[in-house]
Amino acid sequence: MEWFNDTVVREFIFLGFSSLAGLQQLLFVIFLLIYLFTLGTNAIIIATIVLDRALHTPMYFFLSVLSCSETCYTFVIVPKMLVDLLTEKKTISFLGCAIQMFTFLFLGCSHSFLLAAMGYDRYVAICNPLRYTALMGRGVCAALVAAACACGFMVAQIITSLVFDLPFHSSNQLHHFFCDISPVLKLATQQSYFSQIIIFMLCALVLVIPLLLILVSYIHIISAILQFPSTLGRYKAFSTCASHLIVVIVHYGCASFIYLRPKSNYSSSQDVLLSVSYTILTPLFNPMIYSLRNMEFKSALCRIVEKTIPLPH
After folding, report:
1. Tell me: the pLDDT tens digits for 46-102?
2. Judging by beta carbons within 10 Å of its beta carbon (0-12, 13-18, 19+), is residue 274 exposed, middle or buried?
3. Strand, coil or helix: what is 13?
4. Which of 44, 232, 262, 296 is the least crowded, having the fewest Cβ atoms under 10 Å away?
5. Cα(91)–Cα(5) distance, rounded to whole angstroms?
6. For residues 92 and 190, is the Cβ–Cβ distance under 8 A?
7. pLDDT over 70 at 35, yes or no
């Protein structure tokens, strides 16, 4: 489709996998299996936490919210991507692109602040165990999740408005498989330096502030753990934090590289590859990391299975 300089772009064409035309059916099968497995594992985690009263604690409450968030996160991007892998016309409307970007940013930013809330939960559990129940009551947990969602909503609203208020009159070919910030900005007819600075600062704040909070929490956590008298106690304390730390490293590592690197280092093919990792693979690994490393969760899952499917005597 050809667009002239005086024609307003009304839809975008995704070219993220255009260089892999011969492999698109294979990619469809692989991504579909990963997506279904991700939905299944997150559904199992949520159901187990809801059904087993032993898991009705702040840590598992946050884990269930994280699983819900990642289920929605993948739903925003993966189904559309799967359809595009099987069709020749890989388009999305201008409004649809804006909605996809807003939802993706809202969930992604909320995810960052939720990881900070989970870090605070671990800090209270290890550094103030006697006051844990009082400090991490239901109201506090709900308020932390609400605050994470509110911050994500505001940041997503501002960034999406700044991006889509720019004029789009030239190309509509998006070198990506979903509407991310950098690929869409590249198509704007006129770049606003002020908008770019605000977007960069917001992305930096969303990543830096939660990460600093997590680092402060873990400085206190490590200091407290090293004072534990028994090796077994130190091991148990470290093991409860290990899963969270792995997820934090993966999330902030990928996000920082995508959104905080210099514009001169932008590469469409590199971005597509990295985006596959944090939109498809990371939501798959996160629930597996939390569930497979956690004996308490596995015991609860076994109890739920035994109640649901009684074993023959």
Report:
1. 988 898 888 888 988 998 998 898 889 889 999 999 999 988 888 999 999 999 999
2. middle
3. strand
4. 262
5. 20
6. no
7. yes
Residue 198 has, within 13 A of its CA and on its CB side, a CA count of 14
CB atoms within 10 A of CB 219: 11
Interior/surface letters 109-148, b for 16+ CB within 10 angstroms, e for the rest:
bbbbbbbbbbbbbbbbbbeeeeebeeebeeebbeebbeeb
CA torsion 89-92-76-279 (nearest 10°) is 60
Q: How far apart (Å, rounded) are the C-alpha atoms in residues 60 and 172?
A: 44
What is the C-alpha separation between 227 and 86, in angstroms, rounded?
Answer: 57
77/105 Cα distance (integer angstroms): 12
Question: Please, what is the end-to-end C-alpha distance for the chain in angstroms?
Answer: 67
Q: Looking up tokens 């590469």, which residue turns up? A: 267
The candidate with the shortest Cα–Cα distance to 161, out of 91, 205, 77, 105, is 105
Residue 169 in contact with residue 5, Cβ under 8 Å?
Answer: yes
Looking at residue 21, the DSSP 8-state letter turns out to be G
The pLDDT > 90 percentage for the chain reads 35
Cβ atoms of residues 153 and 106 within 8 Å = yes
User: Three-state DSSP class for 91?
Assistant: strand
What is the rounded distance in angstroms from the CA atom of residue 258 to the CA atom of residue 285? 19
Residue 21 CA neighbour count, 13 Å, CB half: 6
Tokens of 224: 């407290």
For the segment 128-152, the average pLDDT, to the nearest whole number, is 93
Reading the block at residue 22, the tokens are: 């011969």
Strands of 173-174's sheet in order across: 91-93, 11-14, 173-174
